[in-house]
Specification:
- The protein contains eight helices and ten strands.
- The chain is of the alpha+beta class.
- The longest helix is centred in the first third of the chain and has 22 residues.
- The radius of gyration is 18 Å and the shape is globular.
Amino acid sequence: MAGHSKWAKVKHFKGAIDAKRGRIFSKLAREVTIAAKMGGGDPDMNARLRMVLLKCRSANMPSDNIERAIKRGTGGGEGANFEEFAYEAFAPHGVALLIEVSTDNRNRTASEIRSLLTKGGGAIATAGSVTRLFHRKGQIIVPREAANEDDLMGLALDAGAEDFKAEPEGYEIITEPAQFEAVHKQVEGKGIKCAAAQVTSIPFITVPLTDPAAVATVSKLIEALEDHDDVKDVHTNAEFPGDAA
């Protein structure tokens, strides 16, 4: 199963069924509100908001939803105060999980996340034991049909990209976080549509899962965590069958 490879995740995000789409929109609206509250409602002046709006566009989120979320963040509507943090955890089979959340009730969220981990055979990890396994990088995903490999590689590297990977389904551009926007603007400036673009956590070393039972167990836990209303994203170093090398 490649359920949590970057390509499968992009497909799942774009093709979510209605129930999932509603949950995705709700989570994205929360991210938009937090970004607008922290840096204002003008995406030209708010880098974080610009990145969230990229995710909204990828999910085909209605503009009315986005505008309401921005108004909540800038004081034009009522809304709860959210705090953001990450849980470090281990799933079965030594798989590391970095669980990003935003919540208006830390105690409730902590209890529910611990419960999901326990039911799935995982556990909260010692502080620092998981974060050291990941590094923050800009990641731009481009479908193969959207660009010529040589042209895109030259464009990305000239713009300051750190790495370029050609894979069966498309291309992955990796940048330092500080260079992400410059590279992304160069790519989109050439009319190349990205499947995903964000600053994210990428594992230094992956844990290959080949046994079907292990794949099913870890996937089920990750999906349960991703479905939680307060979870923004789940980063994992699991390498599922079908993941690109």
